[in-house]
Amino acid sequence: MVWEAAxxxxxxxxxxxxxxxxxxxxxDLLAEGVFVSPLAAATKVEWILDRVxxxxxxxxxxxxxxxxxxxxxAWRLSGGAVVATDASNASCSGFFDLLGRAWNPAILDxxxxxxxxxxxxxxxxxxxxxxxxxxxxxxxxxxxxIGDQQAAMMGELRLEPGEVxxxxxxxxMLDLNAGPEPLWSMQGTYPLVLxxxxxxxxxxxxxxxxxxxxxxxWLRDGLGVIDTPADSATLAASVPDTGGAWAIxxxxxxxxxxxxxxxxxxIGGLSRATTRAHVVRAMLHGIAWRCREVYDALRADCPFPxxxxxxxxxxxxxxxxxxxxxxxxxxxxxxxPAVLQAAALGAGYLAGLATGVWATIDDVRDAWRxxxxxxxxxxPDERDARFAAWQRHVAAARET
Length: 400
Known about the structure:
Structural class: alpha+beta
Radius of gyration: 22 Å
Helix content: 25-40%
Strand content: 15-25%
Number of strands: 17
CATH class of the largest domain: Alpha Beta
CATH architecture of the largest domain: 2-Layer Sandwich
């Protein structure tokens, strides 16, 4: 987001993390020794500024502010009194130095974004101000700022190093608690700040299966084989297997471990006997196997013991068949919480800690509830054989 400092009005439509318009720019920067992910906000902010303030006069004069959505929301809710982003959102922005734990001067210089245009980096938990009275709402405190995946980690109470959660949204995001120091990866995963509490930073390692829930909505909107996302479980369960069909859900590229934005989805193994139920079941399997690839990439660079279970949240976590497939693909129990909107819950936990609803994090642990546990139901050798067979088809997505 880029907005006017005086009014808070956005000067250009916001650009989401999945937008690929700056992929080439990121490649050019990498050739110059400046690494910025095309998923991050940094080059998107540059793209907006190049169109609304190419000479950077407005932003240098303090008339324009830049940041991620949390910073803009805090600005608007407080009437401009809160000029802040938390360390987790900052680490996702592309402007952040994980080692210095502050804005990165080299990246700011390369993109011509002055640090004065960016918000202050604060704790994820703490009272920053109150709602602006002009909103006509009670003057309740603004007590938590945190990125959505990091908030989901808090909502799932993944508090110990090595613990993992998966969030099934448009994409599937897997995060591993890395503890007080960042973990560096060569597997297409990336270190981020998990949260900052009391000035102390905890890090996570994150990996992405870029298409997950969006693959299910494509079955509805693009292919027309289901009426609602919930139908995917019922239809897929109506057949015992995929009938030889397979799917690579790469509708927006392949994330971890490939990091190939140009990859495209592929469906194969079709015959005259293939039905829409087989295709839907193959797509659910494809999501589960992609998440297995991401999980393996996270574990490859992790010094901590494997977790006892994976906790799953997000809209697609309602799908019993998908979670059973996930447990089978990982060989790991999958826990579904009573509250699937774990990001909202995690932000609430942090705000509650800041305002005294809970005295300590141990009090918060007592608030979490599991709704169902999915245990692996296939043998390890069968799991490995199925995974290897599916992975042979990934080349079809990478070659398009």
